[in-house]
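Continuing the batch. This is chain 6 of the set; chains 1 through 5 are on the previous pages. Same settings as before, nothing changed between runs. Recording input and output for traceability.
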Amino acid sequence: MLERLADYKSESPAMSKRIHSFLLLPAAMALTTVALLASHSAGASAPQRARVATSITRNASVVATTAEVLKQTSEIRELAVLKPVKSGAQSRADIERMLIKNLNEQMTAAEMHATEVSLRKFGLAPRDFEYRPFIIKLLTEQVAGYYDPRSQEFHLADWLELETQKPVMAHELTHALQDQHFNLRRFEKWQRGDSDAELAVHALIEGDATLSMTLYMLKHPLEALAFNRSLTAGLATEQYDQAPRAIRESLIFPYLQGSEWATQLYKRGGWAMVSNAFTRLPLSSEQILHSEKYFKYEHPIKVVLPDVTNLLNAASRNQPSAVSSQHPTGTAGVSPARRGARPPGRRLGVSQPTSNWRRIDSDVNGEWNYYLILDQFLNSPAESIRAAAGWGGDRYAVYEGPKPGQVFLAQLSVWDTENDAREFIDAYVRRTELRYPGATRTSSPGSKLETRDSEPEMRSFYSWDTSEGSVVIEIRGQRVVILEGIPDGVDSNALARALWQ
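Output for chain 6:
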């Protein structure tokens, strides 16, 4: 299955381990194991009749090899073949058309714009980064083969040597078996607003297939050797190498972290436990990164983030927006106990007049995203891993203003313990000062003990003036509010107060 990009992360010990007890794959193969990296290079074009004859022969070979590899993969994965899988070879042009068609169906222009703006605002992509054309080029470069649940067909890139791509076929045909037994199409229509849960399900799907492919390679060492040789012979990575780190690592998360997670399930309960995960779905990237939290089925906290569009618009019209106070008060919009995560989702685009502020994105970062958001600037994986590991739940919203490049980001997160919240905020403060070079600290770090629900709670706050507007960070117990890009004339206390309520 050729999947969408979801959200972000990198060089943690878990990521570098691949699959402990199985075949260790070369680093360059990270995407190839998922059928996204292809060896490459196409020869000179032949006359039309020769191309047609070659195409017919190629398709016949793909069909025969598909039947062979499907049978072998079925035995390894312990899922019966319920029906044959249609297959064939596709040209680069055909694959590019498929990618564009799928991308247009999966994301509206408004959602693509929101993704672009969000990546820039979090500092995860350059200011001139254009999401859609880059993703098309990247995936066209990387795709080696794909299974389409809608047509229930498998396609292999026609510029690759068939005999060297059997491990890729094993991966993709695992998706066909998943589809026959668990119905992959049920995951196509995500409820918007929880990309972290969506990422977790992608990790299940791709981790399962990557583990199956790895076991296939162990059982067929000559085919694994041919596959590895095809990678070292020539690998197209130009677009991948140019991709922002967040996109590169979002792309490989379902395969690397997913295979690590699937391996833990496999060791604990065999393929039966992996199969059961398609019913008992993982709920967050946290559960993928920490399999013990999946085994306990620890639910993420559902965080409610109020919409502050009216406050932004009132201020932009120089109208009073709220009663100002020295520091905001109130309680976070968080459920009192961990509950089930909402169904996986994606981006939120809200249509508003272009002369006003409008909320263009509302989603969940999750532990994985927070790792990348921190480490993009800290460049200290161990520190960023620790700071993100206490994640309990979050929600963020991105607002676009009436002026070009005017963007406001609001985040509300809750952490497992007060110490986890403090560890996160300490890292985020350092990240903020690196994210906005030349920023002026407008308040000294301050703390105050208050009472909430008859319990003492420590509040700490920080603020800066930056070239992109003011930044405010406040921690209350286990909860953290972060405001970035507060425009001139907008009362930061009123904004924070709205989010705490």
